[in-house]
Design goal:
About 25% of the residues lie in helices and about 35% in strands. The chain has about 180 residues and is of the alpha+beta class.
Length: about 180
């Protein structure tokens, strides 16, 4: 069974997040690296101190059969949107390898879309590094459209790569342009 619980400022939640940030097999997929060096995860204390939740930022842990397997956030106040219109910025990590490919991402996206609609926002935006082909295919399958590219955004495997920006409009009206 898949469940979502608001992220709490607890050792349990942040040890999981730190585990994924430290995992070299996946951290390059969701952590931008702005300089030509290896990703250095923050300490547990630094990570917990940077925790941000407000009326405009929502953080959730993803549970599969009672075990934490990932996390996601919805940010209604993100200042680096590609399009400066009312939007929700999102990010998802399925950190546990055993949980990937089980439909959890699709389930998360449905939850996010309902959350965004409930706040009367009609647009979701996200970023995907150009080398993350699985994520690109996933979001495009869900109807997300590529709206832009930030060249040289992240360093990986010896060179700089673009961040592709995607959006999903949650209604047929043209009020999100």
């Amino acid at each position: 069974m898949i469940e979502f619980k608001k992220t709490e400022k607890t050792i349990e939640h942040y040890e999981k997040k730190l585990k994924w940030l430290s995992d070299k097999s996946i951290n390059y997929l969701f952590t931008p690296q702005f300089v030509a060096k290896e990703i250095t995860p923050p300490s547990l204390i630094e990570m917990m101190d940077s925790f941000s939740e407000s009326e405009k930022v929502f953080n959730y842990m993803i549970y599969l059969d009672g075990e934490v397997v990932g996390d996601f956030h919805i940010d209604y106040d993100f200042d680096m949107l590609y399009k400066k219109v009312p939007s929700a910025w999102i990010g998802i990590t399925i950190g546990e390898e055993s949980a990937r490919g089980q439909g959890i991402g699709t389930y998360v996206m449905k939850f996010i879309e309902e959350h965004v609609k409930s706040r009367k926002i009609n647009r979701i935006e996200l970023g995907v590094f150009e080398f993350n082909e699985k994520a690109i295919a996933f979001y495009e399958k869900l109807g997300y459209k590529r709206i832009g590219e930030i060249k040289g955004f992240t360093y990986y495997d010896g060179s700089y790569h673009s961040d592709f920006r995607y959006e999903l409009r949650l209604n047929d009206e043209n009020d999100c342009i």
